């Protein structure tokens, strides 16, 4: 029986202690079988348990093994494509609903952390940093757009002001979002898993769903057991493989890499990010970074289309870090890892239902920490018969990647190369 550990990362090394979880070796019955214990699965499980459902979660490896336990830890509002793009591609009613939900995920995280006393180094404040005048113009219209949907904790930063919150000379300005922020992502997932169990939910680890028997009474099979359920929620995202073939064609796993420095001297940490905000730049292939609770710099960037693991992550990411912060040239990198997120062509989440009882949400294409928490709530609402908000996502159009399974990776890489060039030359 395979026993898949966490990949080596700063998060795994600093994870809060958790009890061992069982492998499914039985035939069990439940109301909802959730496949995948990342934020989507755990958030769904929590909302369902809070509403009286019996829930069983199957996790192929360990809680937070996927992107939820490896990400940059940035709480970023809205979706990977903003509401104005959504407004142009769907009707006003659907766009209005999606716009109203765009800031809910961050609130859900904060409520969860407070309600279940989750120790995950939550800090408020996220900065979008503009490198070009065009990006600054985009942030100005983004602020107006977000304010139109009731989000008011935003401040535009000019060149002098951004220099007060981040010691990087590349930026000409930015936008501070005080309802953004950052967390230790794996500890958030572990805390949510403990909350699931405190409400009577069961989580099986090292228990991959290997087959779904569809029908009026669906059954999820694992190598040593099965779960009979009224409903199934598929939340395996970029790690799902081909379990549900319908979902694979319209999404593509992509790798992105993160490094973590040794703990920085207090004075150096304070000089880099005096208010301890997290930062992401506005490039298409963006860099993002923040300080950890013990004052390391977590720095991420770059995308590997098709999710091949690069041989030397430090060699790819460290130069980006030094470009932003040459003052870190003598600082040692303690950890480097890779993780997969799921890209869709529209960069909007892929949400829906197969038959009457199999629900899914995946493919938030990069900015998923907040959306996945919202997704759990929206999926739980749909299972309770209130599907208006679920339908707003499910009705978003999705298309297969050009080139099919064989050529989608080079095609997407070519597209990203083009946008990378535009970033480079300031278009
Ligand atoms: C390196 C990296 C950095 C990122 N940084 C940020 C960031 O700073 N901010 C942000 O907003 N977003 C970020 N993201 C994206 C964000 O982390 C994801 O969008 C989000 O965590 C996805 O959550 P999820 O639950 O849908 O999927 P995952 O967290 O990937 O969870 C899926 C789970 O399902 C399990 N699974 C898969 N198949 C099966 C099966 N057959 N049976 C049982 N279990 C199964 C997997 O083992 C996994 O644990 C980043 C992603 C990566 C990879």
UniProtKB/TrEMBL annotation:
Q: Is Oxidoreductase among the key words of this record?
A: yes
| Entry-linked Gene3D superfamilies | D-Amino Acid Oxidase, subunit A, domain 2, FAD/NAD(P)-binding domain
Which superkingdom is the protein from?
Bacteria
- What are the protein's UniProt keywords? Oxidoreductase
Q: What is the protein's given name?
A: FAD-binding oxidoreductase
Is Oxidoreductase among this UniProt entry's keywords?
yes
What range(s) does the FAD dependent oxidoreductase domain occupy? 31-381
């Amino acid at each position: 029986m395979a026993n898949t550990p966490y990949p080596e990362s700063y998060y795994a090394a600093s994870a809060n202690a958790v009890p061992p979880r069982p492998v499914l070796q039985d035939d069990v019955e439940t109301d909802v079988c959730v496949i995948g214990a990342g934020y989507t699965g755990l958030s769904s499980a929590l909302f369902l348990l809070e509403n009286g459902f019996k829930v069983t979660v199957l996790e192929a490896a360990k809680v937070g093994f996927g992107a939820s336990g490896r990400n940059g830890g940035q709480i970023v509002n809205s979706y990977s494509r903003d509401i104005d793009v959504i407004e142009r591609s769907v009707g006003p009613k659907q766009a209005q609903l999606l716009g109203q939900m765009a800031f809910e995920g961050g609130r859900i995280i904060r409520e969860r952390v407070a309600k279940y006393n989750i120790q995950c180094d939550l800090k408020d404040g996220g900065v979008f940093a503009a490198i070009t005048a065009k990006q600054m113009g985009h942030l100005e219209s983004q602020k107006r757009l977000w304010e139109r949907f009731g989000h008011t904790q935003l401040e535009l930063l000019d060149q002098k002001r951004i220099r007060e919150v981040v010691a990087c000379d590349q930026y000409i300005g930015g936008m501070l979002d005080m309802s953004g922020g950052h967390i230790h992502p794996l500890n958030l997932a572990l805390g949510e898993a403990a909350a699931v169990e405190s409400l009577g939910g069961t989580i099986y680890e090292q228990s991959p769903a290997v087959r779904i028997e569809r029908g009026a009474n669906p059954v999820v099979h694992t190598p040593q057991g099965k779960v009979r359920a009224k409903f199934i929620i598929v939340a395996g995202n970029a790690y799902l493989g081909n379990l549900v073939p319908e979902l694979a064609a319209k999404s593509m796993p992509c790798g992105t890499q993160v490094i973590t420095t040794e703990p920085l001297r207090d004075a150096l940490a304070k000089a880099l990010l005096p208010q301890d905000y997290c930062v992401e730049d506005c490039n298409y292939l963006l860099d993002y970074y923040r300080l950890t609770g013990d004052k390391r710099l977590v720095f991420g960037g770059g995308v590997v289309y098709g999710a091949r693991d690069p041989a030397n992550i430090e060699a790819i990411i460290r130069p980006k870090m030094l470009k932003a912060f040459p003052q870190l040239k003598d600082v040692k990198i303690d950890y480097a890892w890779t993780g997969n997120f799921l890209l869709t062509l529209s960069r909007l989440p892929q949400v829906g239902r197969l038959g009457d009882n199999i629900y899914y949400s995946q493919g938030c294409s990069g900015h998923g920490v907040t959306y996945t928490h919202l997704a759990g709530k929206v999926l739980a609402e749909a299972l309770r018969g209130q599907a208006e908000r679920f339908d707003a996502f499910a009705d978003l159009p999705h298309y297969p990647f050009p080139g099919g399974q064989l050529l989608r990776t080079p095609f997407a890489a070519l597209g990203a190369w083009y946008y990378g060039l535009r970033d480079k030359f300031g278009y």
